[in-house]
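Minutes, project check-in
Item: structure for the 440-residue chain
Input as provided by the requester:
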Amino acid sequence: MEKSKYNQENTSIPTKKLSRLLGIGGMTVGIAGNVFFSASKKFLNGEKPNLKDLLVTQGNLLRFTKQLLEMRGAALKVGQLLSLESGDFLPSEMSEILANLRNNAHAMPATQLKQVLVSSWGYDYMKHFEFFQETPLAAASIGQVHKCMNKNGGVLAIKVQYPGVKESIDSDMDALGFILDKSGLIPPSIDFPELIKAGREQLHRETDYEQEARHLDMFFKLMAGDKCFEVPRINQEFTTDKTLAMEFKEGVTIDQIVSANYNVKNKAVLNLIDLFFRELFEFNLIQSDPNYANFLFNEKNGKIILLDFGATIPVSSDTLAKFKALFNETLGQNKKSVENAMYQLGILDKGLPSHILNELTDIYWDSTEPIRKNKMFDFGNSNILERMQELSSEIIIHRKKIKIPPFDILSIQRKIGGIFLLARRFEAKINLNKIFEKYI
């Protein structure tokens, strides 16, 4: 095996359910010990300790983060989901540390890597390769990616799933869900059991490499000959339930072209928005993970390379009809009908106070004014995020749980949000009506 330039920390992954449960339990005991020690000090000083303040300390959060990074899999994904889906509604200390989980994970040591490869390809697997880089190009919550060359001279990227993560999804989710739900760290307004349920479903999809291989192949065929996008070709020879092999594609993650020519960035955003509408209304199949690492930009030909189809979801005819109704009513400038469409999608929850519901509707209505008036949408000057952050403090103190949308709609919202954040970062200006006219 050869070495790459990746310098991420290597830690062995606990593979058995018991060892993973003990890891979570050890973390809990350690945090409880810290809480007891801090509470004792406060009592001795004549202070009345607050459990939430005792839990949300830098030491406890660092312990929590370190354990999730070492366990990977469902444990790490819970932290990532909490940060991504609920970041605005968590204590700032927890939100800041959890944000680091989105782009960081430890690689597994070479001994564990070889065990996975041997179980997938046999003891003499190296006879198939000219080289296999031992150190990964990237490491995430489910697996890590390695570059290699087979004996035919084909350069491949191979995703290798961490051992034990697929088998421990449910037990990890149950254990972490219980700990976090009872800790007092999760605001009462967050429907945490539903968030855990959504995360569980997403993880079962992402660890099914054989299904991901089928989705990769489907998108390769759908995008064949496309002028704006490329999809790697699947390599069936080295694809198993624990490894996913595809042709290696050169490129930088899409966020790295932030300093590029404005026209290049604007075109990239336009193409991504157009692709989203194609996925929704033509393919009825959406790659729903908006992580920047899933979109590489080839600076030589200007194409965007699509990667990672583990979070691909089918779009039902019912969901399709609801989104079409929302977009049609937006173009029809009927605010009351738009509000009803948002209820149908589950974007609005009638359990919220009327003034919050009105503000959420107003945010959508105001932000879509350029679409209704056939003007350029200026993402750089949009104040959607700021208005949502102002509203979040009221939502946090709301005592009733807010119902989250169904899993497929939540996944589509996540994709829209990811594209919006990229467009805002690039200060893109797009006439969305031209895209609407093609698909609505």
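Outcome recorded: Residues 252-440 form one domain.
No further action items on this chain.
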